[in-house]
Amino acid sequence: MYSKYFLICISLVFGCVTLVAQSTTPTKVIVIGIDGLTVDGIEQASTPNMDKMMQEGSFTLNAQAVMPTKSSPNWMSMLSGVGPDQHRITKNGFDKDVYRNNPTCPQYSEYFPTIFTLLKEQNPIAKTALIYQWRGFKKLINPNDIGYLKNKMIRAESVARKGLKYYQEQQPTLLFLHFNLVDFKGHLKGYKHPKYYKTVERMDEMLKAFLDLADQDPNLCILLVSDHGGIDKNHGGDTPEELTVPLMAYGQNIPTQKIKKAVSNMDVGPSIAKLLQLKTHKCWEGQSIFK
Ligand SMILES: [Zn+2]
What we know:
The chain is α/β, with parallel strands linked by helices. Helix content is 42%, strand content 15%. It has helices at residues 2-24, 39-44, 48-56, 71-80, 84-87, 97-100, 115-122, 156-170, 181-189, 194-216, 240-243, 268-275; strands spanning 28-34, 58-64, 128-132, 148-150, 174-179, 220-225, 244-250, 257-258.
């Protein structure tokens, strides 16, 4: 009898410990950044994993890129919570010194503060990583703000594999992955070409392993973002096809909802900050999609 009650007591104590551990374990975020993923691509291609993110998580298929709808300005707006008027990155081949000679955020004269800067300032022991397929990423962020930086990944599958391995070994607080395969195919064949849709499907297949991680870990959130859409074989303009992008969040603590309010790429950084329980930066302008 004693042993039975003893076991019940033990299990109650451990149950409480588990609950406390879950509530105090910081949230972790993996960002799946898909260059040039159009809303049309998601609708036309077979994307069971993106569909699962939308059915079970929070999403909008009406988020808006910033102008111009080029890669660097938009990735920077996601990372930094402001538009090109503040971060000064208005094209892919930008001059780094344009911002440095005229900083818009006081006390940050080298790089505009990004989500990685915020995390380093408020949680210096947090592990962070950026693994990217497009070398243009390198100029956006202060490399001193990131714990692990890996570029020149030739294949998208290598980004996914490297990201999974890094996550499982290091349990980073923030892991940002950039995939270029979809945009590459859009430029090559067109953003409405069957081969573009096939590439969206290839990207979707890579998502599954990350959703599985979130299914196993209540503190992990997967964010899916795209920098811009595309029209014909290009982007950069102000058509709805280029400006409208998806945004999805998936995880056991993410509410199931279609986001109805206006969402901009500038809201991505503040949303990550909210998930990681960080104070937003005084120079940021975007708003979290989460309450
Ligand atoms: Zn791009």
